[in-house]
Amino acid sequence: MAGSGCFLLLLAFSAALLLDEATAQVPGFQSWNCGGKENFIDEAGIEWTPDNLFIYGHIAQTNRRSRAKLQYATLRYFPSDNRKYCYSLSVMPGMRYLLRPTFLYGNFDGKNVYPKFQISLGVTYWSTIIISNVNTVEAREMIFLATEPAIHMCLFNATRGRPFISTLELRPFNGSMYSDDLEEQFYVSVSARINFGAVSDAAIRYPDDPFDRIWYSDHSGKPNEVLPMADGIKNLSTDRPIDVGFGENPPQKVMQTAVLGTSGLLSYKLKLHGFAGNGWVISYFAEIEDFGPQRSRKFRVAIPFASIPHTDRPAVNIQENSGGKFRLCEHYSVNVTLNSLLSFEFIELPNSSEGPLLNAMEISKYIEIKRGSPDADVAAKIFSSLRNDDWAQEGGDPCLPVNWSWLLCSSESAPRITSILLSGKNLTGNIPSEFTKLTQLKVLRLDGNSFIGSIPDFTNCQDLKIIHLENNQLTGSIPPSLANLQKLRELYLQNNMLSGKVPIGLFRKNLVLNISGNVELEEGGKNPIALMIVVPFIIVAVLAFYTYIMNKNNRESQNAPSHQSEGQAEPPQREAIAEPSSPVLCAAHRFRFSEMKDATNKFQRKIGSGGFGVVYYGMLKNGREIAVKVLSSNSKHGEEEFLNEVTILSRAHHTNLVELLGYCQEDGKSMLVYEYAPNGNLEEHLAQARTQTWMQRLSIAEGAARGIVYLHTQCSPSIMHRDLKSRNILLDRNFTAKVGDFGLSKPAHDGSTSYRSKHLKGTFGYIDPAYMESERYTDRSDVYSFGVILFEIISGKKAALPLLNGGNLRQVIDSAFEDEYEQDSAWKIARTAQSCVHESREDRPSITDVLREIQQARELERERKTRRISHEEAGPTRHRLRTRFA
Ligand SMILES: *[C@@H]1O[C@H](CO)[C@@H](O)[C@H](O)[C@H]1NC(C)=O
Ligand SMILES: *[C@@H]1O[C@H](CO)[C@@H](O)[C@H](O)[C@H]1NC(C)=O
Ligand SMILES: *[C@@H]1O[C@H](CO)[C@@H](O)[C@H](O)[C@H]1NC(C)=O
Ligand SMILES: *[C@@H]1O[C@H](CO)[C@@H](O)[C@H](O)[C@H]1NC(C)=O
Ligand SMILES: *[C@@H]1O[C@H](CO)[C@@H](O)[C@H](O)[C@H]1NC(C)=O
Ligand SMILES: *[C@@H]1O[C@H](CO)[C@@H](O)[C@H](O)[C@H]1NC(C)=O
Ligand SMILES: *[C@@H]1O[C@H](CO)[C@@H](O)[C@H](O)[C@H]1NC(C)=O
Ligand SMILES: *[C@@H]1O[C@H](CO)[C@@H](O)[C@H](O)[C@H]1NC(C)=O
């Protein structure tokens, strides 16, 4: 018992000693054991730490041989995709470092496919790692001057297997001899570091080399093949101390061995990593033979200076050059062009008594440092504000050597970020303002996230072409600066919670703008007229506000009892429906969902969409054709509109109104069942020019006007349509106009003809600009919309309004008529339409007046037809226009 206790104590003591020694001896070394779980100290006293500073990638064990070092038991590997995976290392600016990643495959994936991939330092391509053996450690070394507090080492471009890494070692230098004028332009990639005349195969490194460089044995065959090419080459070694000076010269142990060309020639071939290219060669010499003053060792160095004649090559006298025996001297060959196979020769001079000697050699390649993207800092800030998802873990420069997966860059040498592609990434918080600093940005996609807050100011991003911000939870108003982006072609803002007015500059021809689904957004400012009439409408607005207050008071006192008595299905916006909804709903027929499914053959034939849902064709069991409007469930206001429409439509019956046959509300689905209008709607008809004659169009106009007259004057309380447009005028089998889509309808209260709403609704191009200004909707607002429809009827063109501002009637009238119309009749309709869209609501006619005008126009046209028949023999009359619009 006593014996074993003593043994344990001893063990603990020696371990503590080792740790102390290690941490004391190796200041500045950073050694990561990739995929490792805990720290350990190796036999040389170097402490290894797990690479968990880098959280991405997968950890694997290698099938390591028992001889291999502990740091090769694990590794970290990455997916084989087109992304890059970067380690970020802290360094001290101004210091020179040696960075060494190593790779031992060890068949970690059990596939025995030797991986091939690339590595980079910063944005600069470094090397291609080609694994060619299961148990060979591939290593790369780079010497660099730190200019920033961090440097990235990245793995990328897997062309075979999976990229992986076993260790990563960072060693600071002290002075350094590796400094030169070019180090801010070039990294130095170490290609060979050879200890000649080595006494064993083992490489020399820390602690013999205080900087932990690896001096490979010249006869180990690895990593460089060193092939002697001359006879009489001998090993030479000494135990005597060698003065290696200070700084980063090779350590004494390396200098204590050498090769000797006893026949007068020392000739080698070397296989080099990473060449062809330009680099440098340093040869190290120290006289380690103890001979008398009569003897000398002089030779020429012949490293490929192709242009220099043999005899002019530099001569070395080791003893003289070093200032004595057992002292180091060196010979540099700077900026030489080398191939992957290097031949060099040292040739004894005639007046030398001894053959040439070589102790060690270092060969490195210049690698030009690439500049990163000027957007890198900004991108890094964006990156750090994103969540730690896999896709955000690439690191390094956003563009080089390969771009991050969520952005695109230009192809310049200092690339700029041109596209941000972050759709549907589940991002939260405010939109990082850093995006606005990407001045070359062309495409910004942030749609389908959960961004909150307001839209930042993109004034600095004048190249922006496409912006997707839809389907977020953005609030605030649309910044007017968006309108100043001259190159902007597409702007998607739908389904946010934006409010305020849409900047007028966004309504331009070459810009696709979608702002739907922003309930609080006022679609004001679209029509220039709206701006021109601001002042007169201040007066109207004051009056309207007065009316509103009066109405509101009335309404509140009316609603109070119903609020108490109705415990169920209260529409969210009570003011939308004057009466309690359920009694009215009882009056409408309720269909079962299964009935609807059968009638529409499982919702097979889609005949329209828009507003708040999709419309399907169906047929009831009794053979009646129906149109089933299925309200989209995601629409917050769908249900409110639904109840509203059922309420209103079920009490409005007229030949010129679409008949509501019933409704269906089950399983959270809401549907409206209408009579089917086999000839589609007026908009389609005008587009397809199917309604060719003026007379036919007049009767459609008359029918529609009749329907509206009914709504305005014969319903009690009267109903305003609120979304009149040619698409909402349906045509039945006989082309009878039927006004439909009352989803936005609201009854006027107590015969009052004005109504103020919190939310502006309607369709662009048809909305009364006065309503946009005052937020007050009157029956004359419907008249305005109807005026726009009349213009479409005359011209056959959508949004025909601008045509009338000073255009002549001939240009306006649909060419489809081919002059087959009564000009007085067309003139009458045009004048009526003009008065309908009068800026001032007071000057607009009532819908009843409009109907009368249309009827008179029809009368004129009827007369013309009769006239034409009777004058047929006199030849067709061509009608010329006499008048221009004022
Ligand atoms: C990726 O590797 C392939 C083959 O090794 C090479 O042709 C290609 O240029 C590399 N791509 C990059 C971006 O370095
Ligand atoms: C680094 O340089 C300092 C003096 O500049 C010297 O005292 C120290 O020994 C050097 N360290 C190594 C490891 O050479
Ligand atoms: C030098 O010594 C090593 C190890 O003893 C041996 O393998 C190698 O062949 C020797 N080289 C020459 C040129 O004799
Ligand atoms: C090396 O020399 C070549 C000309 O042979 C020159 O273009 C290059 O810039 C030089 N490189 C360095 C690192 O001096
Ligand atoms: C040896 O020969 C070289 C050239 O062959 C000459 O430059 C040098 O001065 C000679 N040295 C002596 C000591 O003769
Ligand atoms: C980088 O950009 C290219 C197009 O330039 C794109 O195809 C690729 O998906 C982007 N991402 C990555 C990780 O390469
Ligand atoms: C989005 O993020 C939230 C919390 O951050 C999480 O609960 C949700 O599962 C994520 N959804 C997706 C699709 O990633
Ligand atoms: C606007 O967005 C909504 C919702 O995503 C979509 O239904 C509608 O078709 C879009 N409108 C246009 C003109 O793109």
UniProtKB/TrEMBL annotation:
User: Which cellular compartments is it found in?
Assistant: Membrane
List the keywords (alphabetical).
Answer: ATP-binding, Glycoprotein, Kinase, Leucine-rich repeat, Membrane, Nucleotide-binding, Repeat, Serine/threonine-protein kinase, Signal, Transferase, Transmembrane, Transmembrane helix
Q: Where is the composition biased (Basic and acidic residues)?
A: 861-876
EC annotation from Swiss-Prot or TrEMBL:
2.7.11.1
The record's Gene Ontology cellular component field reads: membrane
- GO MF annotations for this entry? ATP binding; protein serine/threonine kinase activity
Catalysed reaction(s) here are: L-seryl-[protein] + ATP = O-phospho-L-seryl-[protein] + ADP + H(+); L-threonyl-[protein] + ATP = O-phospho-L-threonyl-[protein] + ADP + H(+)
Pfam families associated with the record: LRR_8, Malectin_like, PK_Tyr_Ser-Thr
Catalytic EC class: transferase
The family this protein is said to belong to: Belongs to the RLP family.
What name appears for this protein in its UniProt entry?
A: non-specific serine/threonine protein kinase
